[in-house]
């Protein structure tokens, strides 16, 4: 059987079982086992166990439970709630103000985490209840968190950019610098979308009625509640930038900050911590079992010869250099929905990079497009992992259909951003050329 | 019939108890990473063991979560067709798709058991600078998988009961909800 | 019509690493050409199918026909792994390590021990491991205040020598070195440091080498080997033997070229550790060697052979 047919069957059976309602982790794992049986034999199932063991040994993933734990403490102590109250008093007059504030917090969070997954779950915990309580439309809330939560890999530090730099041989520092303006661009575009949409349909993101906006005194008093979150941000970002911790270790600083905040709120008690740790366990376990299965799935797909297949495709793409670039974007985007980032990079980059360079494109520019594409893949139905992570934290009333629908406009906005970066590559290359 | 119900409740209780116990590891991971940062930054004397110990705890933490999550319906899925099918049909569909679940967990159980027995037979250590035993963590893979598999069997029995309207399982028996609406 | 064989080969090198092309690419080309296409290699980058630490097991089980590893990844299965992956401050030149492996018989000892697991062991090359640091080391005191990213046996060695050695995963190494969490690191030598971008932020390349050893190994599943006809089996073994000499030499050449490029393009400076530091490191190292000899009779034999040899060379 050719790899093209296998690919169709592979993805087709994923789609089939996911829609029948089997949890994503078991679909990925089960489909891998079936295909390994037919292509490589029973002995190769050892690979599934071996991939799980390797995933358990990945130190950067330790940041996931820590960041999630931090978010749980902030939510249960009321720190997050007060933060949103302050935001609401200050920006509540603006339609969509809270959503834009959430985007901003997401961007800060993205600067604190280097991996995807942790951000979506943590921001969802903090922001979703706070926004929905204030009458924001469920689709708006879900879309904002999905988008902002994905920025963790675009805004430095980013494990993925480091991996890209290592594989492509470009400077890590330049990659980091290159990610900053595109990150800001995506943020601005998303904010514009929110403003336009909420002025057209005010019920999606209602403004705070004038009588509730509080006096200046109330506003200033509310600012006190911003101090603790800022302290945490300083602790985490400061220890990364100041050479005190690696990005992974910085997650522990975040937990320390959250515990200090809980103490200030006089909520540092066993019951609350126990509950936070159990919820953290549940959410981390959800992410980890998806990753376990996704790594097995990636390995199974690679063993069937995914890379030579893509190599073959690239040789026959019409449309000149830009046709090739767009085809690469599409492949990354589709793989971004089902494979883990490392798997995508291993399969595609060795094929893509020589072509990109021979066509005369800047590998740093391509790298940023690549990372954004993966990020969009993560938030795109039907398989985008972030959608599933989000599903893990929403209240029972919200279905996967709601989540699917909510992301569509936001995906379109990100694609607009991607096109802008293709038309104006200077947005990517300006800062790295300036700094280095 | 009684035996089936007892088995189902027993497995679920076991998984919940293990989950609660394991969940506390997050405190230990936090403390050890902080300790390492502190020793390295303040005393210029990083240890050889804190990060590796944290890593090992994380491995156990992650892999032992499978059964607990299953007991709480924590493995996320797409619920698009549920509303069309209704509860009984969905249960029947779940019985069908569980084939994939069992293929995955059985393959994993068999091979991780082999992997772990080999590790235990040589009391495998990590051969890092600290060189701790890693066989207990490898052993967590078949244990975690077995817990998940058992809970999967419970889920299958539940689905069969719902689909066929059998009496050994009543879904309303243990509907539990977090007051805030999130299933814990 | 003769039967053709396709082998899956799991590398422990990322595709961007020079050794992926230079070692595995060369091996693939040689085997495919000289077998007239009867033996084909399907290459997989680091981590694609099995992680580096799992590759030995996969080859031993015959799931993979071939793989590349560092001996340290087979530590649990091979008592000689510690000596193979390099005792610190033992050899002073690459040719000494090459002679020890291929002429004095250490390679044969490794091959015998790996054969017990159904693995055919062939060292890819011997080469040095060297450090890069952000500030030059001028005294023992300065050495002892260093924070160094390290791993495995060298981490233990550097710690015993008084430096603050910690393990940081490859993905976070650049950031850690840049922000000053560590002041230095070793990742291979010049080519490794260059490929990881370390010279961007750490401008001092430190010599002498921390160790010189057969740190890259090609392993073949004995089961897969046995399935080949006699002539192909001989071809594989011959090509692997040539590979060692070819790659050891080529690697040294590329080290020098890369270092020259780093000096020229990035202003890197080569520094030598002061004699007091070197003496201290040699003393620390020698007190650690004996531990490796304690793992088995074979390891004790290999260590005795090494000590005799170093004595003959006038180093002990
Ligand atoms: Na980030
Ligand atoms: Na052995």
UniProtKB/TrEMBL annotation, chain A:
Record has Iron as a keyword: no
Chief subcellular location: membrane
TRAP C4-dicarboxylate transport system permease DctM subunit domain sequence ranges: 11-427
Keyword annotations of the record: Cell inner membrane, Cell membrane, Membrane, Transmembrane, Transmembrane helix, Transport
Topological type in the membrane: Multi-pass membrane protein
Species: Marinobacter zhanjiangensis
Transmembrane segments: 7-40, 52-74, 144-167, 179-200, 221-244, 250-268, 280-302, 322-352, 364-383, 403-424
Recorded family membership: Belongs to the TRAP transporter large permease family.
Protein's recorded name: TRAP transporter large permease protein
Function: Part of the tripartite ATP-independent periplasmic (TRAP) transport system.
UniProt-annotated location(s): Cell inner membrane
Automatic annotation (TrEMBL), chain B:
Topology with respect to the bilayer: Multi-pass membrane protein
Record keywords: Cell inner membrane, Cell membrane, Membrane, Transmembrane, Transmembrane helix, Transport
Transmembrane segments: 20-41, 53-71, 91-113, 133-150
UniProt subcellular location: Cell inner membrane
Tripartite ATP-independent periplasmic transporters DctQ component domain: residues covered: 29-160
Function: Part of the tripartite ATP-independent periplasmic (TRAP) transport system.
Family: Belongs to the TRAP transporter small permease family.
Protein name: TRAP transporter small permease protein
Organism: Marinobacter zhanjiangensis
């Amino acid at each position: 059987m050719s790899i093209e047919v296998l690919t169709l069957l592979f993805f087709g059976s994923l789609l089939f079982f996911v829609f029948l309602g089997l949890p994503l982790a078991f679909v990925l794992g089960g489909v891998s086992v079936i295909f390994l049986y037919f292509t490589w034999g029973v002995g190769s199932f050892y690979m599934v166990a071996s991939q799980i063991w390797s995933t358990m040994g990945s130190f950067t993933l330790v940041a996931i439970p820590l960041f999630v734990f931090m978010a749980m403490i902030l939510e249960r102590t009321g720190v997050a709630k007060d933060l949103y109250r302050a935001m609401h008093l200050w920006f509540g007059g603006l339609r969509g103000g809270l959503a834009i504030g959430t985007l901003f917090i997401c961007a800060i969070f993205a600067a604190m985490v280097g991996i995807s997954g942790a951000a979506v779950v943590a921001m969802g915990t903090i922001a979703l209840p706070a926004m929905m309580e204030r009458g924001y439309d469920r689709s708006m809330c879900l879309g904002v968190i999905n988008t902002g939560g994905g920025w963790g890999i675009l805004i430095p530090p980013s494990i993925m950019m480091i991996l890209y730099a290592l594989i492509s041989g470009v400077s890590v520092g330049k990659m980091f610098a290159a990610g900053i303006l595109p990150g800001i661009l995506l943020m601005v575009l998303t904010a514009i979308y929110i403003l336009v949409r909420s002025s057209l349909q005010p019920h999606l993101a209602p403004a705070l009625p004038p009588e509730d906006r509080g006096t200046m005194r109330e506003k200033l008093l509310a600012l006190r509640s911003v101090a603790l979150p800022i302290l945490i941000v300083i602790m985490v970002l400061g220890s990364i930038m100041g050479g005190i911790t690696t990005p992974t270790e910085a997650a522990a600083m975040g937990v320390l900050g959250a515990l200090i905040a809980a103490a200030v709120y006089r909520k540092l008690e066993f019951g609350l911590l126990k509950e936070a740790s159990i919820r953290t366990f549940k959410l981390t376990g959800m992410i980890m079992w998806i990753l376990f299965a996704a790594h097995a799935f990636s390995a199974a797909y690679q063993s069937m010869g995914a890379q030579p297949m893509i190599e073959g495709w690239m040789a026959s793409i019409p449309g000149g250099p830009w046709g090739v670039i767009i085809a690469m974007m599409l492949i990354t985007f589709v793989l971004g929905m089902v494979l883990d980032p490392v798997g995508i990079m291993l399969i595609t980059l060795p094929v893509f990079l020589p072509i990109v360079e021979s066509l005369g494109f800047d590998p740093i520019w391509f790298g940023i497009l690549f990372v954004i594409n993966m990020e969009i893949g993560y938030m795109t139905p039907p398989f985008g992992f972030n959608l599933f992570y989000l599903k893990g934290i929403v209240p029972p009333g919200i279905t996967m259909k709601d989540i699917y629908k909510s992301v569509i406009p936001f995906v379109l906005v990100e694609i607009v951003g991607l096109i802008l970066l293709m038309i104006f590559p200077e947005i990517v290359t300006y800062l790295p050329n300036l700094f280095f | 019939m009684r035996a089936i119900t007892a088995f189902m409740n027993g497995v679920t209780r076991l998984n919940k108890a293990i989950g609660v116990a394991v969940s506390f590891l997050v405190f230990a991971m936090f403390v050890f990473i902080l300790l390492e940062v502190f020793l390295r930054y303040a005393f210029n004397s990083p240890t050889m063991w804190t990060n590796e110990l944290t890593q090992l705890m994380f491995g156990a933490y992650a892999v032992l979560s499978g059964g607990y999550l299953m007991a709480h319906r924590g493995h996320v899925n797409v619920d698009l067709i549920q509303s069309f099918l209704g509860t009984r049909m969905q249960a029947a569909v779940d019985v069908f798709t569980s084939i994939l679940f069992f293929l995955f967990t059985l393959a994993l159980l068999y091979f991780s058991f082999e992997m772990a027995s080999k590790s235990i037979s040589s009391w495998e250590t990590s051969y890092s600078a600290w060189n701790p035993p890693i066989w207990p963590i490898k052993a967590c893979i078949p244990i975690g998988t077995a817990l998940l598999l058992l809970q999967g069997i419970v889920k299958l029995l539940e689905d069969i009961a719902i689909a066929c309207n059998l009496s050994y399982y009543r879904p309303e028996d243990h509907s539990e909800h977090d007051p805030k609406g999130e299933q814990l | 019509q003769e039967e053709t064989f396709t082998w899956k080969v799991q590398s422990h090198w990322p595709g961007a690493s020079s050794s992926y092309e230079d070692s595995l690419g060369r091996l693939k080309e040689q085997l495919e050409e000289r077998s007239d296409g009867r033996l084909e290699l399907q290459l997989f980058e680091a981590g694609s199918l099995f992680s580096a630490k799992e590759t030995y097991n996969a080859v031993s089980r015959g799931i993979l026909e071939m793989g590349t590893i560092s001996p340290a990844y087979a530590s649990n299965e091979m008592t000689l792994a510690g000596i193979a992956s390099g005792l610190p401050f033992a050899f002073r030149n690459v040719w000494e390590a090459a002679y020890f492996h291929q002429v004095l018989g250490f390679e044969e000892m490794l091959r015998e021990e790996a054969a017990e697991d159904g693995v055919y062991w062939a060292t890819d090359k011997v080469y040095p491991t060297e450090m890069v640091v952000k500030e030059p080391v001028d005294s023992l005191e300065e050495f002892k205040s260093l924070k160094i990213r390290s791993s495995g046996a060298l981490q233990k060695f550097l710690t015993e020598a008084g430096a603050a050695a910690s393990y940081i995963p490859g993905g976070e190494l650049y950031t850690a070195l840049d922000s000053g969490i560590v002041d230095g690191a070793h990742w291979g030598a010049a080519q490794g440091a260059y490929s990881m971008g370390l010279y961007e932020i750490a401008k001092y390349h430190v010599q002498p080498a921390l160790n010189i050893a057969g740190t890259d190994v090609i392993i073949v599943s004995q089961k897969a080997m046995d399935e080949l006809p006699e002539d192909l089996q001989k071809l594989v073994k011959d090509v692997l033997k040539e590979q060692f000499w070819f790659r050891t030499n080529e690697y040294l050449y590329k080290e020098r070229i890369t270092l020259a490029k780093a000096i020229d393009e990035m202003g890197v400076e080569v520094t030598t550790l002061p004699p007091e530091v070197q003496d201290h490191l040699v003393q620390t190292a020698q007190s650690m060697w004996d531990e490796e000899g304690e793992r088995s009779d074979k390891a004790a034999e290999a260590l005795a052979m090494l000590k005799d040899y170093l004595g003959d060379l006038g180093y002990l």
